[in-house]
Write a structure and sequence with these properties.
Blueprint lengths: L2 E9 L5 H16 L2 E9 L6 H19 L5 E4 L2 H5 L5 H15 L6 E3 H11 L4 E6 L3 H13 L3 E7 L5 H5 L6 H6 L8 E5 L10 H8 L3 E3 H13 L15
Parallel strand pairs: 1-2, 1-3, 3-4, 5-6, 5-7, 7-8
Helix pairs in contact: 1-10, 2-4, 5-10
């Protein structure tokens, strides 16, 4: 058995990332015997707006320095749209910056991001065309679509639920997601992103959504979990956790 400390950099209004990622890793722990603990540092953000997202990115170094004090084994910057709203490819720059910040603070660990994890996960699945669901207002969804397409993955269709209060996003009823996913245009798609947001609950809806769309399903939270585990060398396939966890 190996014990790992997982650091999460999250918005102050986050309520979902600290439940879904631990749940996926709990499933992995049950399969492997490894142990995971979770340690968070928060950055102020209540409304999912371009201004608050940019301010949160500026505050990320402070949060990474504080999290470094917990001697974590990996850090995940867990707000997909905060990064994707800043322009194509910027997850690489932010991950590199925060990795240096953490190392300078005494924690030489990988810093991953939900944005980078989603893109990497889709490439890992060989997905060249996807359809997706977001909780965002349509202008932010457009930025997410542009970001993903900038990574060489075509977005066939996107549904925006248009919720800008981050706490309200965390209260969305995930049992409705399979029906919402069923409304997507998935012609020619290789996968569906059921939740392009770590705050929108989706983990328990994945099996039903896959049955509806008859395609592999990935979410921001499962991609982040997969990336964290891969960084630690602790990945294991587990059931009911989407396409990235089928081995």
């Amino acid at each position: 058995m190996t014990s790992y400390r997982v650091g999460l950099l999250v918005p102050s209004s986050n309520t979902t990332m600290e439940t879904e990622v631990p749940e996926v890793l709990r499933r992995v722990a049950a399969a492997t015997g490894d142990r995971f603990t979770f340690h968070s540092s928060r950055m102020r953000m209540k409304t999912v707006s371009a201004e608050e997202l940019a301010a949160m990115n500026a505050d990320a170094d402070r949060a990474a320095i504080e999290l470094a004090d917990a001697d974590v084994d990996v850090m995940a910057y867990a707000c997909l749209v905060a990064i994707m709203s800043q322009g194509r490819g910027i997850h690489r720059e932010i991950e590199k910056r925060l990795t240096k910040t953490a190392a300078d603070a005494g924690a030489p660990v990988d810093v991953k991001s939900s944005a980078g994890a989603l893109v990497a996960g889709l490439h890992h699945l060989g997905a060249r065309k996807v359809s997706l669901v977001t909780p965002y207002m349509k202008p932010l969804t457009a930025r997410v679509v542009d970001y993903i397409e900038g990574e060489g993955i075509e977005v066939q269709d996107a549904i925006s639920l248009e919720v800008d209060d981050n706490l309200a996003v965390g209260r969305l009823d995930q049992t409705q997601l399979p029906e919402i996913a069923g409304r997507l245009d998935t012609r020619g798609a290789d996968a569906v992103v059921l939740s392009a947001c770590v705050q929108m609950p989706s983990l328990d809806a994945i099996p039903a959504a896959e049955a509806v769309v008859d395609l592999p399903v990935i979410t921001a939270a499962t991609a982040t979990s997969w990336q964290v585990l891969s960084s630690l060398g602790a990945y294991a396939p587990v059931p009911d956790s989407g396409a990235l966890f089928r081995g």
